Known about the structure:
Blueprint: H1 3-17, E1 20-27, H2 31-41, H3 46-54, H4 59-79, E2 88-97, E3 101-106, E4 112-117, E5 120-128
Antiparallel strand pairs: 1-5, 2-5, 3-4
Amino acid sequence: xxxxxxxxxxxxxxxxxxxxxxxxxxxxxxxxxxxxxxxxxxxxxxxxxxxxxxxxxxxxxxxxxxxxxxxxxxxxxxxxxxxxxxxxxxxxxxxxxxxxxxxxxxxxxxxxxxxxxxxxxxxxxxxxxxxx
Length: 132
């Protein structure tokens, strides 16, 4: 490995130590439904976001809540600090489209309609409010 490549890799490694995130891949919910939930907690404190997701009626909220707690646990493991004393908030949350399963729905008169069963990828990035 060349020296520039190694230095760049070490720099990238240092930058990822300060990022506390979690990802959910191939979640079998349409991205549009998941974005409604993601927009609800963007920029909100972690504890408040957890309560909002816990009392939401949407099915996608359960999956995002589990992902949020995974990101909180990642913060505790990487930094060694407790999450409640750090004043964490949701810095970024974004939803990307995943792969679509193509299925056939029978239709009248011997025809068939295509159905796309969509999935998505969700990424949550947390940041402490009082940056050290």
